[in-house]
């Protein structure tokens, strides 16, 4: 078990303090919950295990989530390859994740193109607005990034993760 999946619990045993490690789901810690698999495999959410990607009957939503996990793990080319296998590539989620992976590969303008397509499909999707704003920060377009921040505030307030992350990116662009 990884340290991010553990928490400590204090127990009093025979008058002594004992610490026990208890499993905590990754989502409870605010982390991405889809594990990554070795290259050539994909995580099957239904079976809850890694399976061979070739011939796997995995739904698009599962594929998109897995691609995002790969991208968050820095495996951008693999993430794009998984996104290439979705049957319906023109969804807000798939386009957002494609934008994220391409931006992280240094292809910021291409990423912005995908983000804008995603926004067109779902203007209320806060995560794409965050990533679009971060791309604008990279491009030095702080005015456009602040517009995205204002939209995020209307969508989910100043306490949501997307608002906090874009706000931090505007305050410290080197952290993107």
UniProtKB/TrEMBL annotation:
Coiled coil: none annotated. TPR repeats lie at residues 92-125. Keywords: Signal, TPR repeat. It holds the Pfam family TPR_16. Residues 1-28 form the signal peptide. The keyword Signal applies. InterPro entries: TPR-like_helical_dom_sf, TPR_rpt. This is Tetratricopeptide repeat protein. It comes from Ancylobacter mangrovi. The lineage of its organism: Bacteria, Pseudomonadati, Pseudomonadota, Alphaproteobacteria, Hyphomicrobiales.
């Amino acid at each position: 078990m990884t340290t991010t999946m553990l928490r400590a619990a204090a127990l009093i045993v025979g008058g002594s303090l004992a610490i026990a490690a208890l499993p905590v789901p990754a989502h409870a810690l605010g982390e991405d919950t889809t594990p990554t698999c070795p290259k050539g495999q994909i995580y099957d959410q239904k079976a809850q295990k890694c399976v061979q990607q070739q011939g796997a009957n995995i739904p698009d939503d599962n594929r998109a989530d897995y691609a995002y996990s790969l991208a968050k793990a820095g495996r951008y080319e693999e993430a794009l390859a998984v996104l290439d296998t979705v049957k319906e590539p023109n969804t807000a989620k798939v386009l957002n994740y494609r934008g994220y992976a391409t931006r992280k590969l240094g292809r910021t303008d291409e990423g912005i193109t995908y983000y804008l397509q995603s926004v067109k499909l779902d203007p209320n999707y806060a995560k794409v607005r965050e990533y679009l704003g971060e791309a604008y920060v990279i491009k030095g377009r702080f005015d456009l990034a602040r517009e995205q921040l204002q939209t995020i505030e209307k969508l989910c307030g100043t306490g949501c993760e997307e608002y906090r992350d874009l706000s931090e990116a505007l305050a410290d662009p080197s952290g993107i």
